[in-house]
From TrEMBL:
Signal peptide region: none
GO cellular component: mitochondrion
Keyword Oxidoreductase: no
UniProt cross-references to InterPro entries, sorted A to Z: Thiolase-like (IPR016039), Thiolase_C (IPR020617), Thiolase_N (IPR020616)
Family classification: Belongs to the thiolase-like superfamily. Thiolase family.
Protein name: Thiolase N-terminal domain-containing protein
Membrane spanning stretches: none
GO molecular function: acyltransferase activity, transferring groups other than amino-acyl groups
SUPFAM superfamilies referenced in this protein's UniProt entry, alphabetically: Thiolase-like
Domain Thiolase C-terminal: 110-162
Lineage: Eukaryota, Metazoa, Spiralia, Gnathifera, Rotifera
Amino acid sequence: MGQSADRLAAAFNVTRREQDEYAIRSHLLAQQATDKGYLDDIIPMHIPGAPDAISRDNGIRVSTMEQMNKLKPAFIKPHGTVTAASSSFLTDGASASLITSVDKAKELGLKPKAYIRRYVFTSQDPKDQLLLGPTYATAKLLDQCGLTLNDIDVFEFHEAFA
């Protein structure tokens, strides 16, 4: 995926500096949100043998442009532009969702938090467009629903190389 991120950055003329600025901003906003208590959905995890539980996002790394400039390309060497700081860090995690009908949710005494109204499938050339699937799927889905980007308050995507 890292090589795909490098290829897409080149194809869309996204410079190393732009990637670094975006990464700095992203980590800074995440730190500010943490400090303000906005990220309260983390359940503490106790690791056997570790002195403390993990209770905060340990992937937030506030940095400076000077620090970013010291990093070498992580994937396409020596001319790539994606670095360890502009990539998601290696992680392991878990989540769970219960997807059911409204009737079943009522039967179980549960209140739905979201509804799946429609979905689409897309596929892209894994060499040149591996990371563009969500982009094409979003456009296709909005078109099918007669909506625009302005009709949606929040999008949530897992994009390791946004």
